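Page 42, continued from yesterday. The earlier attempt failed because a stray header line got pasted into the input along with the sequence. Redoing it now with the clean sequence only.
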Amino acid sequence: MSEIRVGVIGTGIMGADHVNTLHRHVSGAAVTVVADIDPARARAVAVGVPDARTVDDAFALIADPAVDAVVIASHDATHADLAIAAVRAGKPVMCEKPLAPTLAECARVVRAEERTGLISLGFMRRFDPAYVELRAALAAGACGVPLLLHCVSRGVASAPGATSESSVTGSAIHEFDTVPWLLDSPVTEVEWRAPRRTPAATGLRDPQLILLRTADGALTTVEVFLNAGYGYDIRCEIVGDRGTVALADPARIVTDAERRRATGHPADWRPRFADAYRLELQTWVDAIAAGTPSPLATARDGLTASAVAAAVIDSMRNGGRTVPVQAPAL
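This time it went through. Structure tokens are written below.
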């Protein structure tokens, strides 16, 4: 195909950003249809894309002959049914994480997609230049044998309706994919802990601290703090037997004023991972155009990360006990 016609489902923050990235920064792609249950929101997002139509029915977008491939960025609860519909329509789909909110739904998607390779999952950190460099440094032995990883994921404020469980399935799940990807070793057991909660948190335990053990014996601490307030902040340090490697502060400027030196924090994840999203979508579109397998995370990768999330939630609900990660049955 000379140009991949893409339909985008969901025009919230993430979907709107995907529409903009595909239209402005991804070659070989054209956004042709945008879907949202709120027609006005869909129109507001599509207005800057020449010839893009809007619909309020995601399944109609999937069936539309003017759509070659589908991006799913709608509510997590819709992911499974929409991804399966795209597979049945024979259309490649890039689904935002998580693959689905529950392990049973993830397994249902993987069964439907088995052997087609049509589903790619939006674990964009695999394309972030800093994480890619971190992985390469680790593979090259920059810090020796990895013993400990310290991961931090902080945001300004949690989304409306956030729960302790959705903090795991919607935020911490990035680490459940990234850590095994960095170490090339699966997570085998988990523990969940929480200190006293921040007064800014309503309806959830925040912050949370999660301990992961991987098959290689390394331990990882994952801090998830959705209501940190000061800005969006992602950190990762790997401690080895001969040194450490870590992500550097991505701030591009320093401000000197009023006897102070300062760098800023973004308000959310989009500026920090703009390059990752662009590279991920470009790679996905290029693979579709070439007729080659997608090098993005797979539906099975999503199922594996969700199995870790399920174990963490089990630990959360049972006093923080150590919970083994069970390979999901299909």
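Notes: The first helix runs from residue 13 to 25.
Reminder to self: strip header lines before submitting.
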